[in-house]
Structure prediction request, 241 residues.
Amino acid sequence: MKRIAIIISIFILAVNLYAQKPEDTEDWSRKPALVTPGKNNLPPSDAVILYSGKQDLDKWQEANGKPARWLAADSITVTEKTGSIQTKQGFGDCQLHIEWRTPSEVKGTGQGRGNSGIFLMNKYELQVLDSWQNETYNNGQAGSVYKQHIPLVNACTPPGTWQTYDVIFTAPRFNADSTLQSPAFMTVIQNGVLIQNHVELKGPTEYIGKPIYKYHDAKMPLGLQNHGNPVSYRNIWIREL
Prediction:
């Protein structure tokens, strides 16, 4: 009796498999939008271009809403007696491409050497630093999610050379009562090397103390830090996800 039951089960399975067709598992529900890729790190067709080297900072401002005052040429450079800058437009989930360069003339050591930062949502810092043969605390070197995640490797090139960050950022979500629903995540590729692999952010960047999430808007500006060193940025584009 058991043998007959097994034979019947195999027969039913064979009939079901035979009855299925390849198109049964085809999904036609969403046709992907057409995007033309950019060549050599240039922006794809659906990107928001934040700086292309046209010597204008019209998409940037200081935190107080005044015009950005960094030096604008083929790149933008941190300038003395100015503040940090941020985009006028807010972003949440995004793909960010940004190229950066620390000064070729090396001055200072540790955190005092080629220091700046890229702030997703103006709160979550991806560190920029001259980390070529420059010792500092590991969760503060270039490529770190500042004071939260040490980069997997040090992929820095020498001072004065252009470097790239390609970032995939997932913004945090908050419940209707302002409590945290899900944290932020970040993936970073530096100079073609994976250095942060979908790491969970513990909260906004803090210089002192532990990070804690507090409710904020779903979209906020991208910020570039003035830390007193003449760090430059170019070819900045972002895709909303």
Q: What stands out?
A: The chain has one domain: 27-240.
